[in-house]
Amino acid sequence: MQRLKQTLSRIDGKGYKAYKDIQGEYAFPGFRLTIDYVQGDPFAAPSRLRVRMPMERAGYPAEWYREKHRRIALEDWIARCWARQTKRHSFEVKGTGKSGLIEVDRPGQEILERTAVVVNEAFVEVRVTVGLPAQGRRVLGRKAEEMLCRQLPQLAQEALPRQTLDPQAVEERMKLVDNQWAIRRFLKEKGWIAFIANGAILPRESGISDKPLSRGNVIPFQSPASLEVEVNVPHGDPIRGMVIRNGITLIVGGGYHGKSTLLKALERGVYDHVAGDGREYVITDPDVIKVRSEDGRRVEKVNISPFINNLPFGRDTRRFSTDDASGSTSQATNIMEALEMGTTCLLIDEDTSATNFMIRDGRMQKLVAKGKEPITPFIDKVRQLAEEKGTSSVLVLGGSGDYFDVADTVIMMDEYRPVDVTAEAKNIAQAQVNERTREGGSGFGTVTPRQVLAQGFDPQKGRKEKVDAKGLHHILFGTTAVDLTGLEQLVDTSQTRAVAEMMRWIGKRADGKKDLKALIDELYQEVDEKGLDVISPFRGQHPGDLALPRKLELAGAVNRLRTLRVR
Ligand code: ADP
Ligand code: MG
């Protein structure tokens, strides 16, 4: 620390570049400070630092981090503490540009594996970004000393050792994630899709907020008796709630009665949520995918023939490519790509679906002959999908009773309360003869894996490689913009950043022989063995702002890369 102070006083008042001299490692009382990267000027991306405290000093019991789900929960907890604390200090030290900024990647409502904090047997490490202070382009050495040698040590004292983390609250967090883990295991064992605990709060504050709705009348979730199950959890009483089994589940009900809200909660249930979120015990199979129509997206040689055939001009739909997909072809593509990745269940909302993809009634069948209609609607494929491929579906459909014929379970949302109306729906289906003819053919059809070519990935921008996330749903890959708006289960910008890096990795490993799924599996295997840091492009610098995305979102991003080429 003395050495750092000396350097800072030596470079005080010099040009900003002189800050490069402080790169390196320093012993501080109780921890080690590593300055990995120093920014080039006060407006540039901030400098990257690490604060590492030996475990003997931090004093965490091994039960807090031995199991993976607990370790992730602990790392998340520490990241939140630091994000809160750094906010207090940030910009206390004033100057030009980002001078005085101290930041740690801030988690949202989900508990995700992220690179902001690392806990293991040897140490706990927090990755911090700092705006080194300047006046104009001159080094403010005194102020830098204030940040690095007073504020940081204070943070390390206040938000790292066990007793400063509120051990009671950490224990509560551990119990929560243990229970979430137990429900996930329960679903897996049964082969079921989702569990929604009684009392869960599903609606969100607003269309742009992920916080629970608290104003006005909020109706807590309550399972209908016929769909209620009880799950044993390691901490506390068994938890009761509604189960969504494998097969085909229909969510019906009047407009504004909470159908989409229920589906959204299921989408997000692939992640664990923090206490107080309302969706703590809304748990979904980790491989379910929300699919929607997404006209305008690019498609690269996807076999969409199970849904689309006889396109004008005899275009081959077994290797369908387009730079501008329609509503129905984009939705078919999204489904086929998800099947390629081995999804367990499709979540589909009428609000974001192409109507002609979902249904075609008897009258329309009479008017437009099958030979003239390229689309086999989803209704004629959904059973084959479940029976042949083992892929379930949960469908929000307030507009068509035709699906009563194919559904296993029908749930009606009635003023935000789910009612099991399966028997009534089946009775109606039986009493009223359906005029429509089945169009599904004898089987679902083939899911064709694709081999990725390296040439489609060009991270080059000018002379440098550059990939970056521009907000939650946009990536700049070299000079190509990738639009991820269709990936509704991407929840954190740090995931998007990771997706961008992982795409670069895929591009380097693609050889025209390996399937996209095999490539992605390989990458996740490596991440599992070595930690999420491995995808970082910075050698010797910490990647403190990445969070693990699902394989399905990574595949989704690769598939949306407009330059993608497959064999
Ligand atoms: P639908 O898809 O059936 O038309 P939505 O799910 O979009 O309806 O819900 C309509 C509105 O009701 C939304 O503003 C949503 O936030 C609100 N809402 C949903 N569930 C609840 C609930 N349990 N309690 C209170 N408000 C809710
Ligand atoms: Mg809706």
UniProtKB/TrEMBL annotation:
Residues 466-567 form the MRB1590-like C-terminal domain. Residues 168-449 form the ATPase of the ABC class C-terminal domain. InterPro entries: ABC_ATPase_C, ABC_ATPase_put, ABC_N, MRB1590-like_C, P-loop_NTPase. Residues 1-160 form the ATPase of the ABC class N-terminal domain. It comes from the Bacteria. PANTHER family: ATPASE. This is ABC-class ATPase. The lineage of its organism: Bacteria, Bacillati, Bacillota, Bacilli, Bacillales.
